[in-house]
Amino acid sequence: MSSKISENSSSDLEDIKAKSFDEVISGEMPVLVDFYADWCAPCRMMPPILKELKKRMGDSLTIIKVDTERKPDLAIRYQVRGIPNMILFKKGKVIWQQAGVMQAAQLEQIIRIKLEEFHEI
Predict the structure, then answer these.
(1) What DSSP string describes 77-113?
(2) d(CA 8, CA 5)
(3) Where residue 54 sits, what CATH number does that domain have?
(4) Mean pLDDT score of the chain, rounded to an integer?
(5) Average of pLDDT values for 96-120?
(6) Is 2 within the bounds of a domain?
(7) Is the pLDDT of residue 6 over 70?
(8) Is-contact 107 86, C-beta < 8 A?
(9) Any domain includes 10
(10) Phi, psi of 83 (to 5 degrees)
(11) For residue 90, which of 67, 74, 114, 73 has the smallest C-alpha distance?
């Protein structure tokens, strides 16, 4: 199933609107997906946090955003019940998922731990 990603207004985050969701999450690069909605107040706190995370992680992580109002099929597929909802993918597999606002340092720590655990599998 192929879906386009909603545009991301932050130039520091990956703009992958021309690629399909499945293509992006299936690559070698780990991908953090931020499921959000424009009406969600906590979701509006995430862009600067994700920009900071991108600075910390650099090219070792792709970060994308998916609007749950425009792509409800993806929200349903990944059982997104609360937003903002972060899902970390590696080679197409979900290796971590959590709802709620988190700070960049906390996200970085979790991502690094989960990626290490993934390599041990």
Answers:
(1) HTT--SSSEEEEEETTEEEEEEES---HHHHHHHHHH
(2) 9
(3) 3.40.30.10
(4) 86
(5) 94
(6) no
(7) no
(8) yes
(9) no
(10) -130, 150
(11) 114
Which token pair is 74?
Answer: 């993806």
Q: How many domains does the chain have?
A: 1
> How many residues are recorded in the chain?
121
* DSSP per position, 27-82: SSS-EEEEEE-TT-TGGGGHHHHHHHHHHHHGGG-EEEEEETTT-HHHHHHTT--S
Calpha distance 77→69 (Å, rounded): 14
DSSP category for residue 20: B
Residue 21 to residue 67: CA distance in whole angstroms: 12
Token pair of 72, please? 């409800």
Residues contacting residue 83 through CB under 8 Å, at least 6 positions apart: 35, 36, 37, 40, 42, 43, 68, 99
Query: Which residues are tagged catalytic?
Result: 40, 43
Classify residue 4: in a domain, yes or no: no
Q: Whole-model pTM?
A: 0.84
